[in-house]
Amino acid sequence: MQRFNTAGPIRPTLDYHIPPLDRLALPEVLGLVRDERYFVLHAPRQTGKTTALLALRDLLNDGSEGDYRCAYINVEPAQTAREDVGRAMGAIASQIAREARYTLNDHATADAADEVDTNRRPHAVLGTLLEAWARAASSPLVLLIDEIDAMVGDSLVSVLRQLRAGYPHRPSSFPQSVILCGVRDVRDYRIHASSEKEVITGGSAFNIKAKSLRLGDFTQVEVAELLGQHTEATGQEFAPQALEAVWQQTRGQPWLVNALALEMCFSAGVPREPGKPFTDSDVFAAREALILRRDTHLDQLADKLREPRVRRVIEPLLSGGDAEYSDRDFEYVRDLGLVAPGRTLRVANPIYGEVLPRELTWVLQHEIAPQETAWYVRSDGSLDMDGLLAAFQKFFRQNSEHWIRRAQYTEAGPQLVLQAFLHRVVNATGRIEREYALGSRRVDLLVVWPREGGREDRIVVECKLVKEGRSMSRTVEEGLEQTKRYMDISGTDAGHLVVFDMRADRSWSERIFREERDHKGAPVTVWGA
């Protein structure tokens, strides 16, 4: 039985998959190879890069697209050598030997790579090997180098410069075409080379790059096609709202799509018996399971939040404040996959949008005094949002200074504390949907609370900050308008506006208040904190 794959390259006979070459700009890639170009393929982790490279290797070797000998090597093993160039070249030589021997049946090249002395002239080892390989090959050599950005320092600089030095001798005495594959475009590398006592940019060390291609996420059609393969194989269907939920929650990020489907269809490794179609409720339950498990893919992204250049980009999203980051910061975070492609700053997908605040408040969520969900559920099954926010006011007054001071993302501290508090109560039964509005000084939260009979309550919670130089009245009026707008978008008539007064001269008796307001016919409860 085929399954959804979340670990390593796909195997077509075992894994549901979208044909990897369909996801490449294949005519452009083949054109660059024919034109003897060196270029870059990059995309966030677990997007399908390695699968695409292996499929391209097999296509070029089968002769249907021309007479080539194509080799794939993964240079990640050289990462452990750090800046020891000799050791790094030894690891790469071993990869060349394995590929030459088992893929191309080229035992002479494999033996030469096995026997090479990588400590003697280490900065020429790769170039010499590739020159000999290209000269001995019966057809032009194409080299696919994966995980290039796993290497660091002098080792990485040495690889890039050896490729650049051999470039003029292609195709007779050096690979006709080389593809460098990694998370980021090589031009964005800032390499700390100890031997040169300076930072070297990838663009200067590898200025022969003809183009940079990005492997995209699944389209909505491809998401439906992938899930449809399971339906065809097992008879287990996905309701239209489930297909829409998978797309909306993942925006086609390949690992997320496969992970959600794997959780739904093979929970605990056991195939679900065909029966009722999966619904959007199943999708959200699977989403919660992934987040709680902190699977490696999500944990790796969350770990990046500690980096200063990531914080400079992500913090304004979480706080609604104005952004002060460089183009390089933005490009780095975009290449990591945390924010969406393009120039507009927005979280890449709602699952990442859920992971960000929960990861940043992981400790807080577990140290908040017990807040039992049952305390805030009325007799008719509805959520007592008034009681919950009143309890938050009390908690925030007693604990805010301590938690915001400890927070890494201090500008977003108040909003993150509120979300952590709500999460302790709401996510046991319902869920919180988040919208991040950069530069608006607000964060939109939608609390979704299930009721009997398939109904659900939808409650808008808007967060605003009052900082030095701004008035409370103006902030409240802006917040009321924004809350009304989000209530209209969300299709609900229940709205709350939480205003955090961050001005230093305000006492808690001035900050804490509750008001019932009517804004253009929309009842909104305003909470001061």
- Biggest sheet: strands, sense, closure? 6 strands, mixed
Major sheet: arrangement of strands: 8-9-10-11-13-12
Helical amount among residues, as a percent range?
A: 40-55%
**Poorly predicted runs:** none
What count of helical segments does DSSP give?
A: 21
Strand content: 15-25%
Radius of gyration: 27 Å
Find the count of extended strands (DSSP E, 2+ residues). 13
- Helix and strand content put the structural class at alpha/beta
Q: Specify the overall morphology.
A: elongated
End-to-end separation in angstroms reads: 55 Å
Explain what the structure shows:
The chain has 529 residues and is of the alpha/beta class. Helices cover 46% and strands 16% of the residues. It is built from 21 helices and 13 strands. It has helices spanning 20-23, 26-34, 49-61, 85-102, 107-115, 125-136, 153-166, 202-205, 220-234, 240-250, 254-265, 280-293, 296-304, 308-319, 327-336, 350-360, 362-367, 385-406, 413-426, 472-490, 508-511, and strands at 38-42, 69-74, 141-146, 177-182, 190-193, 198-201, 209-214, 431-437, 442-450, 456-466, 494-501, 513-519, 522-528. A six-stranded mixed β-sheet has the order 8-9-10-11-13-12, sandwiched between helices. A hairpin with a 2-residue loop joins strand 12 and strand 13 (522-528). Helix 9 crosses helix 10 and helix 18 crosses helix 19. The longest helix has 22 residues, at 385-406. The chain is elongated. 45% of the residues are buried. The mean pLDDT is 90.
